[in-house]
Write a structure and sequence with these properties.
The chain is α+β, with helices and mostly antiparallel strands. The protein contains four helices and 18 strands. Strands 1, 2, 5, 6, 15, 16, 17 and 18 form an eight-stranded antiparallel sheet that branches. Strands 9-8-7-14-13 form a five-stranded antiparallel sheet, with no helix packed on it. A three-stranded antiparallel sheet has the order 10-11-12, with no helix packed on it.
Length: 301
Amino acid sequence: MSFNFALILFWLMVLTGLVWATDLFVLRRRRQVRAQAALAQFDATSAFRGDDPKLADERANLRESILRQPGWIEFPAGFFPVILVVFMLRSFLFEPFRIPSGSMIPTLQVGDLILVNKFVYGIRLPILNNKIIDTGHPQRGDVMVFRYPKDPSLDYIKRVIGVPGDRLVYRNKHLELNGVAVPETPLPDYFDNDRVLYSKQFREVLPSKDHTVDNNILNDDDRSMQIVPDSYPFRDNCVYSENDTVLSCTVPAGNYFMMGDNRDNSEDSRYWGFVPDENIVGKAFFIWMNFGNIKRIGSFQ
């Protein structure tokens, strides 16, 4: 069962914030009034004790006991600033994710803990995900986290292959963009420890806005080239060959075509269609931990 962590965090922030604000503006003042009355009574009844050295400590203890926050206030009010900071950082700056599958091997491994830049593609309202400030757009070659179009409660991570207006063809496990074959350089075969088999590995060079992006991709010789698509919005923008081994698509405005680097082991835009702009979460850029292999810590493209 999936859950919306951002929504849970939001409501925790609201509830703890209400307790914090109620205490700050209402309950604390009431405690101060009670403390003043109690101290005045204490001073009146203790006047006969003169210079008793214990008097000051007793008075301080009385004041502290009255002003002290009750446990039901202290716990949520104390957590509110922490939850607020986490919510703001996670909503507007950086969000951590864990890689759950091998669809982005060899770039990202199962178990990689990554950071996602939330503001590089625009400032969005938390929960609603509506863009309020435009700071940029995804470019070919970006590794992007997005909400799965068929189930927005799920976060997916793939590489941006096509941007609005691009015409791409995927034929015989090779990619063409706007009529030009994407350069590939053969590399030594890649051994997948989880599947205990070798895959063909290539260095692919994707043209981006003002530079190129080199990334390694995998293909399995024993996997069928057939693509069995679902129905999806703008399905008419794509043409599948009679035997579904060739795909040709024109990316519609406001949408992106995504593919995993582990090409024969990735369900992506070839199967379920385009990613609309409103589903974008952010750009993945850094592996901050992999408990199985700490050498993987670092940036990637």
